[in-house]
Amino acid sequence: MTRDAHGLGRAELHQIYRALVLTRTAEERLETLQKQGHVTGGLYRSLGQEAGAVGAAFALRRRTDGTGDFLAPTIRAAGALFLFGAEPVDFFRQYMARDTGPTRGREANVHWFDFDRCFLGPVSPLGTMLGVMAGVTLSFRMRGEERVGLVFYGDGASSTGAWHEGLSLAAVQRCPLVLVVEHNQYAFSTPTACNTRVESFTEKAPGYGIEAESVDGTDVLAVFDAVRRAAARARAGGGTQMVELRYFRRRGHAQHDPQDYVDPALIAAWEKKDPLDRFRARMLEHEWATPDELRALDEEVFRQCRSAAETAVAEPLPDGPDALLDVYRDGHAPLPWTRAPDPAAALAGQVGP
Ligand SMILES: Cc1ncc(C[n+]2csc(CCOP(=O)(O)OP(=O)(O)O)c2C)c(N)n1
Ligand SMILES: [Mg+2]
């Protein structure tokens, strides 16, 4: 095989498969680590959505010297981080708040950045990264750089003011930005129908004067094609673009959420559209890989995750007294007035008469 209809060679298709397996395996390993007490914060699965993050990231220019396209992920876009060069060991360190991790335990999960690998950590209030990425990509346009940005956001995030403000700014400034809407049908326990009157988020695009496509988010090559088209339009001066990924959040918002507000039959129906199973079947059907090659990739990724997790588990948590370093100026924070020996006096001293 030289190139298939998607313009991808065998090695690239194997890379995509590997990224899907890595996402699934690393997240499964995290679940085990959480049961063992090593992960104490929230744990967010992208089960059923892996093809969205992987297909989208694979469509971008990925560099490790700070010159590539720029990515703003969400908690469900770990696959994109891996493709952008995030090391599995750092992923585990981050979830386990290790002193050796990218934020030295100050922040959790995907809240970290790497300017060389060109990804930002999300700012927690939903929607805000659209404005941030409008700024990042406006700078690309003003400097005449042929780079684009990609920001992921869920269906629920679209109901925030920051989302509208950021998208409006990006659209008006014709920023080379691709907004990927992860339409997984729930925002925590809120179904999409309680968040918006539209069936598809692409219906919102004309209001901002931008182009949009909607695509089956469980089909990694369909996602890749749509995001590649959108990125090409943005790179060529076509301004901000939207790509909606249609799929389903097959787990609760986080591991602590039993998802008992969703009909189990619906979850079971979406299991049949598992992105990894679908791509594996397609690889074999088109003879893009042999069963032995896929098995070897599965095993290699499993070993990589096990070893990365073992490394991170053995590493220390940050020292307590160090915890405020790099958080507050001079490494110490003033006591909040509520914890002062005389709270009323402290409050009066702070806000004045
Ligand atoms: C402005 C704001 N409100 C609430 C939250 C808490 N919160 C974090 S994720 C989330 C659900 C987001 O749903 P969605 O955007 O659909 O993404 P998904 O979790 O489905 O991937 C909520 C309510 C927040 N981070 N920011
Ligand atoms: Mg959602």
What is the strand arrangement across the widest sheet?
Answer: 1-2-3-7-6
The CATH top-level class label: Alpha Beta
Helix content: 40-55%
The assigned CATH architecture is 3-Layer(aba) Sandwich
CATH superfamily, by name, is Thiamin diphosphate (ThDP)-binding fold, Pyr/PP domains
Rg: 21 Å
First and last CA, distance: 78 Å
Describe the structure.
The protein is α/β, with parallel strands linked by helices and 353 residues long. It has twelve helices and seven strands. It is 43% helix and 9% strand. A five-stranded parallel beta sheet has the order 1-2-3-7-6, sandwiched between helices. It has a two-stranded antiparallel ribbon with strand order 4-5. Residues 74, 76, 124-126, 154-157, 160, 182, 184, 186-188, 249, 253 line the site of thiamine diphosphate.
Helices and strands, with pairings:
Layout (H helix, E strand, L loop, with lengths): L9 H26 L14 H9 L11 E3 L5 H6 L4 H8 L32 H16 L5 E6 L6 H12 L4 E7 L2 E2 L2 E2 L13 H4 L2 E6 L3 H19 L2 E6 L17 H8 L3 H11 L5 H24 L28 H9 L2
Structural key phrases:
single chain, 353 residues, alpha/beta, Rossmann fold, five-stranded parallel β-sheet, 12 helices, 7 strands, 9% strand, globular, binds thiamine diphosphate, binds magnesium ion
Quick overview of this protein structure:
By secondary structure, the chain is of the alpha/beta class. It has helices at 10-35, 50-58, 78-83, 88-95, 128-143, 161-172, 205-208, 220-238, 264-271, 275-285, 291-314, 343-351; strands at 70-72, 149-154, 177-183, 186-187, 190-191, 211-216, 241-246.
